[in-house]
Write the structure tokens for this entry.
Amino acid sequence: MTTLDRLSLNQWTTRTWSVAEAADGCVRAGIPAIGLWREPVAEYGLAASAKAVHDAGLRVSSLCRAFGLTSGTGDLDDSRRAVDEAAALGAPCLIVVAGGLPAGSKDLAGARARLADAIGELEPHARAAGVQLALEALHPMYCADRAVLSTLGQALDLAEQWPAESVGVVVDTFHVWWDPQVTEQIARAAGRIASFQVCDYLDPLPADLLLGRAMMGDGVIDFRPLVRAVEAAGYTGDIEVEIFNADVWAADPDEVLATMTARYLSEVL
């Protein structure tokens, strides 16, 4: 029997809602977990956000994000604050999006080296806080401006320098579906998958490439082989739906959740 027991709403899917509104929406839709973002948490208040989620009886599947650790002048203090916020919210992991090339730079190898140095600086703080850093590889089209980690294999190469309890990886279907090595790399990630995120990949992509994430079933991804691979790797955590899409954001959030739960059952499980 298929259920919603492991389904999580990534808050950015219903970005017009506050933390409390998103928590209430999850309750109405029968969704037991939520992935939070730092910006709406800051707007609603950290303590108030933690209380709203707790009072709704929800798990926090992740907190997004630490970002931009490739410049060599990245704000590690902000990333440390993000770790502390994740701990306060009860999030088991903090999503880490590496950052792209510094302005005017073409030194990709240097950016990746600085990212490794930054993770080395951040890892002791995360370990002490009991928060796993979740390194997210983004689709290669974002390499220049958002993430110099472009494959799950690259993310694992970096993560494996530290204990799995403190540094893991994200498997996001939008970013990894195209990779001919994805099944092997998911198997390699056993014990280190911190977060599993799903959404579809639009074809054709919109002009704004950030908004090419779609509701499951509206794009080109075959989800079940990826789900089977993640589960074979031992992952039993939440399956988080994260969608950046102008039409989804413009729709009624309760209707989005109704579609999301239906598509989760029909397309993912």
Remarks:
- The chain is about 40% helix and 15% strand.
